[in-house]
Amino acid sequence: MGDQIIKTEKVTKIYKRGRSEIVRALDKVSLEINAGEILMIIGPSGSGKTTILNCLSGLDTVTEGKILFNTSRAGEGFKIIENKKNKEESSRKKSSNFIDITTWNEKQLTAYRRHNIGFVFQAWELIPTLKAVENVESSLYTSRIPSSEIREKSIKLLRKVGLIDKEYAYPDQLSGGEQQRVAICRALSKEPRIVFADEPTGNLDSDSGNQIMRQMKIISREGAAVVIATHNMELRKFADRIIKIHDGQISF
Amino acid sequence: MGKWRLIKNSVRFAFRAKRRWITFVIIFAFLSAFITFFAGVFNMYSTDELLEQKGFYIKANGYGSVTDAQAQSIFTDISSLSQVESVALFRYFDLGDYIRVFGVDPDFKWAFREAKPSLITDGRYIHSLGDAVVSQNATIKADVGTFPGNISVSLQKGDILHFENPTTTFELKVVGEINDRIVAPDKLRIFITNDDFESLHADFGASTPIYCYSMAVLVKGDLYAPFNSDIYDNMNALDDPSEPLFLLTENLAFGDWLDPDYAIPDTVKKDRASRFLYFIFGMVGGILLTILYNFLIVWFRRREIAVLRAMGYEKGEIRINLLGESLTISIVGYFVGILAIVIYFWTQQMTFTNQLLNLWTLLISFGIVVGLTVPGLLLSSFSFVRVSPVILFKAR
C-alpha cells in the first residue's frame, strides 16, 4: 500500500434528532486511508457509513477528534487558503505534512474537495440537462484548463470505461450501469487523490455492479484511494481492506 | 477563463431544461408584454396624450382669424401666467394657391394635436432642418395655361421638394406622410421645422401673411409623480371662463379663437391613479413570479447544486449558474413578449403606434423586467446556500 492520505483520530459525531434525542453517529473512530487501496466500509443501514464519508470529505463537521490530511502530494493547483486564525497551526502541521481539516473554514474545505476528492453516489446524480461528456467536464469547468483539453480528456475517460459512442447521450438515454460509469469518469476527471463512493452498485444489477467494481479497482491501481461505503457483503472480494461499522464504532 | 466558461455554459444549458424553460419563458413573455403596455401608456403621458394629461388646446376660429402678431402677443401674456409651464404656437402661410406650410417646433411636436407624430402613416416625423412631412396621399398641383390646378403629381416619402426663384433655392426632403386632421381641401399641407418655416417664408412667401393655426398651453406639474397634484391644481386654476386664459382668448385684440379644449382634471386624475394601481399590481405580480421561479429553480436543481458543491464549486460559481438561467429566462421572455405584441397588432391589422414600441418604452420595460428578477435572484442566491451536499448520500 502507498502513503497515508488521510488519518482520523478519535472522530466523534453527535447530532440531535428531534428535540431531545442525541445520536452518536460516530464514536471515537480512528482509521487511515492509503493511496492505491480500496477501503470498504461495511455496515447495516444507520450504522454511520455515510457519516464517515461526509466527515472525511469535508461535507460535514465533526463533534470531536481530528481528520488529518496529508498535503505532501495534494492535488495539482491545490492551495490551502489560510486565515490568520489557523495560519500558525497550519504551518506547524505542515512540518509533518498532515493538516487537520476540522479546523478549516468552508472556503478551505471547498478547495480541498475541488482538488482532492471525487464522489460516486448511489443514484449517480448526473445533471439531467447535460450530455454524458458534459457531465464529466462539469467538474473541470471552474478550472483554468482550456475547454478543448477538457473535452479531449473527458472523451478519453469515457472511452476508457467502455462508453464509446455514448459521449453525447443524455443521462436518461443511458442504462444505470452506463450512468454510473459516467459518474465515475466525472469523479476521475480532476485526478483526485481519494474517491468516495456511497453504495455505488446499490441501484445496479449484479453484472453492472461487478463491472463498476472492476473500474474502481483500476482507479485504485492507478494510485488513488477508493473508499466505498456499502452494506452489500458480496463486494468484499474487491476490497483491499475492510472496516466494519456498527452503531458508529468500527472494527477491523 | 473558468468564470467566463461558467457564464457561457449556464446560458447554454438553461435552454436544455425544456419544459421548465418554456413554461417560464411564456409566463415571462406575458409579464413583459403587460409591462411594456404600461411603460407605453406612461410614455404616452409625455407624448401622444400630452394635451389630454396637462394641456389646453386652442384653435383659431378659421383661416386667417389670428395673425402672427396677435399670436405672438397672446403667447407672451399666457406664458406669464404662474400656472403655465410652456406655450407652443403652430403657424402657417400659403405658398401659392395649392400649398399650405405649417411650422412645428420639434420640441413641442406632441402639442400639435392635428399633426402629432402618432398620426404619421409612413416614414418619420420632422427632426431637423430640411425635413418635411406631407399630408397622406398628397398631390402637388400646378396651373398650366388657363386651367387652374390641372396638373397634379403625387408626393410620397423620399421625394425632394425643390423651391427656386431667381435669387435662391430651397430644398426639403419628404421624410414622412401624416394623416393630419387639418381641414384644408385642395391644399398640399407641408409640415416643417419653425426655422425652415421662417426661411421659406422669407425667401418664397414674404408677400403672404403668416397666421396662427392653434396654440397649446401646458400647465406646470410632474407627469410621473402619482402623488403630486400640481397638474390638477393648475388645470383647475385655469379651467374657468373667468380666468385669464379664457379671457385672453376671448379678447378680439388677440384674434378670433375658439374656446379652449382642455384635459378634464378629475377624469385624468382617476385614470392616472387606476393605471398606476394596475402597474403596481403588475410589478408586485412580476416580483412574486420571479421569486416563485427562482425558488423553483433552487428546488428543482437542489441535487444538482448539491453535486456542484460536493465537486468543489464555490458559492459564487454556483450563483453564476443560477443567475445565468434566471436572466436567460427573463431576457428571452421579454423578447418573446415584444414579438407577441407585434404579432398581435399584425393579426388585428392594427396600426402600429410608434409609441408602444419606441426606444424609450422598450428600454424602460426591459429595465423593469430585468429589474423585477432581482428579488428572485437574491432569494435564490441565499436559498441555494442552504442546500447541503449531504443530501446526495441519501437515496432519491
Describe how the helices and strands are arranged.
The complex is a heterodimer of chains A (252) and B (396).
Chain A: E1 4-17, E2 21-29, E3 32-34, E4 38-42, H1 49-56, E5 64-70, H2 84-94, E6 98-100, H3 106-116, E7 117-120, H4 132-137, H5 147-160, H6 176-188, E8 194-198, H7 206-221, E9 225-230, E10 241-246, E11 249-251
Helix pairs in contact in A: 6-7
Chain B: H1 2-14, H2 18-45, H3 50-54, E1 55-59, H4 68-79, E2 84-95, E3 99-104, E4 120-123, E5 131-135, E6 139-144, E7 147-154, E8 160-164, E9 169-178, E10 188-193, H5 194-204, E11 211-219, H6 230-238, H7 244-250, E12 261-262, H8 265-300, H9 302-311, H10 315-347, H11 359-383
Parallel strand pairs in B: 3-10, 5-9
Antiparallel strand pairs in B: 1-11, 1-12, 2-3, 2-11, 4-9, 5-10, 6-7, 8-9
Helix pairs in contact in B: 1-10, 2-8, 2-10, 2-11, 6-8, 8-9, 8-11, 10-11
Can I get a quick summary?
The complex is a heterodimer of chains A (252) and B (396). Chain A has seven helices and eleven strands.
Describe the structure.
The complex is a heterodimer of chains A (252) and B (396). Chain A has one domain (4-251): Rossmann fold (3-Layer(aba) Sandwich). In chain A, a hairpin with a 3-residue loop joins β1 (4-17) and β2 (21-29). Chain A has helices spanning 49-56, 84-94, 106-116, 132-137, 147-160, 176-188, 206-221; strands spanning 4-17, 21-29, 32-34, 38-42, 64-70, 98-100, 117-120, 194-198, 225-230, 241-246, 249-251. Helices cover 31% and strands 26% of the residues of chain A. Chain A has 252 residues and is α/β, with parallel strands linked by helices. The two termini of chain B are 34 Å apart. The relative contact order of chain B is 0.18. Chain B is 48% helix and 20% strand. In chain B, α8 crosses α9 (302-311) and α10 (315-347) runs antiparallel to α11 (359-383). Chain B folds into 3 domains: 2-46 and 270-393, no CATH class; 61-95 and 208-257, no CATH class; 97-202, no CATH class. In chain B, strands 1, 2, 3, 4, 5, 8, 9, 10, 11 and 12 form a 10-stranded mixed beta sheet that branches. Chain B has 11 helices and 12 strands. Chain B has 396 residues and is α+β, with helices and mostly antiparallel strands. In chain B, a hairpin with a 3-residue loop joins β2 and β3 (99-104). The interface between A and B is medium-sized, with 35 and 28 residues.
